[in-house]
Structure formats: structure tokens, C-alpha cells
Design goal:
The complex is a heterodimer of chains A (205) and B (175). Helix content of chain A is 66%, strand content 0%. With 205 residues, chain A is mainly alpha-helical. In chain A, helix 2 (28-40) crosses helix 3 (44-66). Chain B has 3 domains: 7-47; 60-98; 121-167, no CATH class. Chain B contains 8 helices and no strands. Chain B has helices at residues 7-14, 19-28, 30-47, 56-99, 124-135, 139-142, 146-152, 156-167. The longest helix of chain B is centred in the middle third of the chain and has 44 residues, at 56-99. The chains are: A mainly alpha (205), B mainly alpha (175). Chains A and B meet through helix 1, helix 3, helix 4, helix 6 and helix 7 of A and helix 1, helix 3 and helix 4 of B.
């Protein structure tokens, strides 16, 4: 699907417009805390609600990291399993989503699984009928090159780029998630963008 | 401002921050401006790139699989806990058994009052038999053919040894 119009998403305000970042409204936060508290008491249904709420975000994070559906699927399940095990230790000092992304990133960083046979690869989604076929092919080809390039970035740069750009975490939240400093996160982000541009250019030659 | 902007400062400017001085520098310095523009172009590429959307049914399957794995893990933990309790109990029982003082050997059964035989520790005949056993091939005895066959097959010399042994106590005192 790639860059089709159906794939449009809300861009991080500051990065998209150049305006200073403001704290976005977080209506899900209260519901998260309620579900987290219930999960800590062992209520599986409550954790199930958290899975439903965040499975897309976690899957996309993992997919961007490994650029493979089967591995992203495994890593998403692993991330939620780890979250369930560790939820008793979640003290609410950060957003639940930030805590969960940190777990998912750690699962990705530890990822050493062998790639699945091609038969298990996710089939490409059907093209958007609103987009002319030729444009869709070009868009998809470019999107594939970008995804490949992201997956080839050094691990910390990759994690920084994914969390900051796609999941809209602040520099500080990314630093917390990666056990790093704000300065390192900023530098990693800038290096990641520079490397990405080169990798995409190489991939298009 | 002296020199160029660091990656940290450039990232701040890219993020809409960095302060007026850094933004002004980026706007006037050709090198920093070029790096910033390159980063913006890469960012635009990244933001336009989505992950392929799995089929709609995938999400329900994912949710179920996560639930199944959590349940399986819960069962495994419960089994491990039961096993741990059992192992602990077994270890306690074993420890108690090993730690107990060795019991006194059971006393030899007392001979009935009417027995014509002397007590074992006073029976010089038993000592004589042990001397005989040391000097005699007991293969025939061990073959299970009985005392009669064993004695019948003794040679003259062996018979004499047996008689002398039965008459002599372990200390060699003739009875």
C-alpha cells in the first residue's frame, strides 16, 4: 500500500510544520491506567483491551524495525507477552504506550530469529483504486526502498527514527526508551536521516 | 555564532526549536542549511512511507494468539509451582530421613527357651564350620544339593578336618 492516499497518517506536528512541539491531548491515558491497574490485578480482559488498543502501533513499530511481516508478528506477540509479565512493575511514571514501545524496541534489538521462508511473507496489499496504477507502482517501489533503508540503519539510529518520527515520542521519551541521553537521541536522529537518504539513493540506482 | 551547528542543534532546528540564533545560522550558513534541507527531505520520505496493512482478520488472530500464549504461560507457571511444592516436600522428607541418627541394629531373635542349641555367640560349632568353609570347596554346597550330599562327597581327609573343627572352639581350644 505504501504511499497511497489510504495510508495517510497524522504527522508529528513539530516535524511536519516546523512549529515548536506542544503536548498533545492524550484521551487514552486515563483508560490506559484503568486497564493497567486491572491487568496488574491479573484481569486478563483488561490486558486484552490494551492489546486491542496498541497492537497496530506495536506491530508497525516491529515491522519498521525488521521489515518482515512474520518476524514483526512474532515480535509483536513477544512484546505483549513481556508486557504482561512485567506489568506489575509499571509504576505509571511514563505513558503506558511509551513503556510498551520500550519493551517492543528491546524485543527488536534482541531479535536474532532466522527469516521465514518466502511463502510466509505478507502478500502485497491491493492497490488503491483512487490512485492510478502507474503512480501506485512508483509509490510502492519508493516506499519499499525507504522501508529497506530504514531496516538497514544501525540499530540505535533505526530505533530512534522509528520512535521519534513514526510514534511521535519526544526526544526525552525516546531517550528513556533506549536508555540513552536526549543529546544522543538528537544526534542519532540526525545521523539516521542522513544515512537514510544515502541508502534510499543507493537503492534507487 | 562560530563554526557550524552540531547534529543536536540541527535536530532541534528540524524539530522547530533550537532558538533564534541556531535558526538564523541555519538560514544563512550554506553548509548547515544544506544538511538541514537534506534531513528534511529524508524526513518527508520517511513520513510518506507506511507499513503494508495486514488483512483485517489479522488483528483478531494476533489478539487471540497473544491471549493464548499468556494463558499457556499461566498454566506452565501453575505446573511449575505445583512441581516446586512437590519437590520441596520430597526434599524435606529426604533430608529428614538422611539426617536421622542410624538406628540400632535389630537384636538377634532370641532362641526359644526349649532350644537345645547354645546362643550363636557361644556356639563353637559355628566357628568350626567357618574354618571348614575356608578350607573346603563349597561348590557342591552352593549348588544346592544339601548337607547330606555335601558331607557324602567329602574325602577322608576333609571328613577328618570337619570332625576336628567341630571339636575345637575358635580359639583353638579342644573341647
Amino acid at each position: 500500500m505504501g504511499m497511497s492516499s489510504t495510508a495517510a497518517r497524522a504527522l508529528p506536528v513539530a516535524l511536519a510544520t516546523g512549529e515548536p512541539a506542544t503536548e498533545p491531548a492524550r484521551p487514552a491515558a486515563d483508560a490506559d491506567l484503568e486497564a493497567v491497574e486491572a491487568s496488574r490485578r491479573g484481569e486478563r480482559e483488561a490486558f486484552d483491551r490494551l492489546v486491542v488498543r496498541y497492537q497496530r502501533d506495536v506491530y508497525r513499530l516491529c515491522f519498521r524495525y525488521v521489515n518482515d511481516h512474520a518476524d514483526a508478528n512474532d515480535l509483536t506477540q513477544e512484546a505483549f507477552l513481556r508486557a504482561w509479565r512485567a506489568i506489575g512493575g509499571f509504576r505509571g511514571q511514563s505513558r503506558f504506550s511509551t513503556w510498551l514501545y520500550r519493551i517492543a524496541v528491546n524485543a527488536c534489538l534482541n531479535h536474532r530469529a532466522a527469516r521465514r521462508p518466502p511463502a510466509l511473507e505478507l502478500p502485497e496489499a491491493l492497490p488503491d483504486p483512487a490512485v492510478p496504477a502507474s503512480e501506485a507502482v512508483v509509490d510502492e517501489e519508493r516506499a519499499r526502498r525507504v522501508r529497506d533503508a530504514v531496516s538497514r540503519l544501525p540499530e540505535k539510529q533505526r530505533a530512534t527514527l522509528i520512535l521519534k518520527v513514526y510514534h511521535d515520542l519526544t526526544h526525552r521519551e525516546v531517550a528513556e526508551a533506549l536508555g540513552s541521553t536526549v543529546g544522543t537521541v538528537k544526534a542519532n536522529l540526525f545521523h539516521a536521516l542522513g544515512n537514510l537518504r544515502r541508502l534510499v539513493a543507493e537503492g534507487g540506482e | 555564532m562560530s563554526g557550524h551547528l552540531s547534529e543536536e542543534r540541527l535536530a532541534d532546528v528540524l524539530d522547530g526549536g533550537g532558538g533564534p540564533e541556531a535558526r538564523e545560522h541555519a538560514a544563512t550558513c550554506r553548509a548547515c542549511g544544506a544538511r538541514l534541507e537534506a534531513a528534511r527531505a529524508a524526513l518527508a520520505l520517511v513520513l510518506q512511507t507506511e507499513v503494508p496493512e495486514p488483512p483485517a482478520l489479522y488483528w483478531e488472530a494476533l489478539r487471540r494468539n497473544v491471549g493464548r500464549r499468556i494463558d499457556e504461560e499461566g498454566r506452565r507457571r501453575a505446573n511449575r509451582s505445583r512441581l516446586l511444592v512437590f519437590a520441596t516436600a520430597a526434599a524435606v522428607v529426604l533430608g529428614v530421613s538422611i539426617g536421622r541418627a542410624p538406628e540400632e541394629p535389630a537384636p538377634a531373635p532370641a532362641l526359644p527357651a526349649w532350644s537345645a542349641l547354645p546362643p550363636a555367640d557361644e556356639d563353637s560349632g559355628l566357628a568350626g564350620l567357618s574354618v571348614l568353609a575356608a578350607e573346603t570347596d563349597l561348590a557342591a554346597w552352593n549348588a544346592g544339593r544339601g548337607l547330606g550330599a555335601f558331607v557324602a562327597e567329602l574325602s577322608e581327609e576333609e571328613s577328618q578336618t570337619l570332625v576336628e573343627a567341630l571339636r575345637t572352639d575358635p580359639a583353638g581350644v579342644e573341647l
